[in-house]
Write a structure and sequence with these properties.
With 433 residues, the protein is of the alpha/beta class. It has helices at residues 41-47, 59-69, 86-89, 95-109, 122-126, 131-142, 162-171, 193-206, 239-247, 260-274, 279-304, 318-329, 347-350, 365-375, 384-392, 402-405, 414-432, and strands at 2-4, 25-29, 51-57, 79-83, 115-120, 147-152, 184-188, 211-214, 229-233, 251-252, 308-311, 332-338, 358-363, 379-382, 397-399. β9, α9 and β10 (251-252) form a beta-alpha-beta unit.
Length: 433
């Protein structure tokens, strides 16, 4: 084993038609085209500033991370791959001893590490390497200076955003218990620091709090959780983390997701209602942000209004993105594919989708490609593996993974989110001249 480096006040939402809430869902199983959960390390290692992610996998795993993260010239990245060699696979070396040796050398070399994640991969799962037991053993050895945890980033029957879910779920048992039953708000999901700071200011203006975030910026500052904790999901793909928090006594606040002006307002309002914030105070606190979001969206509406869009299942962001694009920018979703559809977490989003939109859960890539080619949408949202072939066929595409890497939540990012969809259409138009 070796080491390698259209806006509407959310009060009217409940009164709307059911949208796609009762729409039959086409469930497909077959060949898939997605990244694995290791990809989540790319944004998680930037968020948790004193954590290190050690993938226990193959050279292919190392190449994936190096390609996805790009070349970091000025800073040593906080992720690496402990490569499973042929000797490990053949049983000629004790994989646990090799792992202990690699981890010891890593911690000696990087004294800034406060939390080390052992990240499972397809190869480590195939050889039945028990990383949870290894993490427990190593944590006992290196505590209190370094805590060692484990989670699976395997690409077997998963999609790439589940890597974040598995990571955050692994953090929940480590969160300290919150004494008493005093209410606190926990925002769950890795957000860019600029977005997190904006939400802190908005919640402060509303009088909602104390507000904490999971993951925290530093591993040593994990938020407390208990029966008084109420949590908002900032991402729709955190089902495992939500279950782990509920097992610790926390309660979920159902809401639409904070994409666009409407989604952000509904998300904030859900917390404000739990805290008993008056309508007057809510309007006063959110009005400036809502106005900025509306103005920013207006710059892109002419480009996107009336354009058709087709979503391949990839990131699990597809449903809230379709709601945002259809309601705030006038786009027409033809098919909304998503790897997994959690009805409870997406209930508010499904109610706001156009009733005629087709919902697909899971993937059979050949059938979905046939439907996409037949529909000839103005834009196709898909993974990198499908984008170039579809571009060669004359279809305009948007990489779904870019929507996870980019800050897109909140009022001040609404225009940037719309721009991510407008730019491919503008580029196509210029190339056609």
């Amino acid at each position: 084993m070796s080491l390698a480096g259209a806006s509407q006040d959310s009060q009217g939402i409940a009164a709307e038609a059911a949208g796609c809430a009762d729409t039959p869902i086409l469930r497909e199983r077959g060949q898939r085209e997605v990244f694995c959960g290791l990809t989540g390390i790319i944004w998680l290692h930037r968020k948790i500033q004193d954590a290190f992610f050690l993938v226990v996998g193959s050279r292919t795993c190392a190449h994936l991370l190096q390609s996805a993260a790009g070349v970091m010239i000025f800073a040593e990245p906080r992720f690496a791959t402990a490569i499973i060699e042929e000797r490990d696979l053949a049983g000629l070396a004790d994989a646990n001893e090799e792992l202990d040796r690699v981890v010891t050398r890593l911690i000696q070399r990087r004294p800034d590490i406060r939390m080390l994640f052992l990240v499972g991969s397809c190869p480590s799962e195939v050889i039945k390497l028990d990383l949870s037991r290894a993490a427990q053993r190593l944590s006992e050895r290196f505590l209190p200076s370094v805590r060692v945890l484990s989670y699976s980033g395997s690409g077997i029957e998963t999609t790439f955003t589940e890597g974040e879910d598995a990571c955050l779920a692994a953090l929940v048992p480590e969160m300290p218990a919150e004494p008493g039953t005093a209410r606190s708000l926990l925002v769950v999901g890795a957000l860019a620091e600029v977005v997190e700071d904006q939400f802190i200011r908005l919640f402060a203006a509303l009088g909602v709090g104390p507000v904490r975030f999971l993951p925290s910026r530093r591993a040593s500052e994990l938020p407390a959780v208990g029966e008084g904790t109420r949590f908002l999901l900032a991402q729709p793909f955190l089902a495992g983390t939500a279950r782990a928090l509920e097992a610790r006594g926390a309660r979920h606040i159902p809401a639409a997701f904070p994409l666009g002006e409407e989604g952000t307002t509904a998300w904030l309002r859900a917390a404000a209602e739990v805290w008993g914030v008056s309508e007057e105070r809510f309007t006063q606190a959110t009005a400036p942000g809502r106005e900025r979001a509306r103005a920013a969206l207006a710059n892109h509406r002419a480009t996107l209004d009336g354009k058709s869009i087709f979503f391949f299942p990839d990131s699990q962001l597809e449903v809230p993105l379709a709601r945002f694009l259809s309601r705030e920018l006038g786009m027409q979703p033809i098919e909304i594919g998503t790897p997994y559809l959690h009805r409870q977490h997406l209930a508010h989003e499904l109610a706001l989708l156009p009733a005629k939109a087709k919902l697909v859960e899971g993937q059979h890539v050949d059938r979905q490609l046939d439907r996409c080619r037949e529909a000839r949408p103005d834009m196709t949202v898909c993974g990198l593996g499908l984008a170039n072939p579809l571009e060669a066929e004359g279809l305009t595409t948007k990489w779904s993974i870019e929507l996870v890497f980019s800050p897109i939540q909140g009022y001040d990012q609404a225009g940037d989110l719309a721009g991510l969809f407008a730019r491919p259409l503008v580029r196509r138009e210029k190339l056609m001249v």
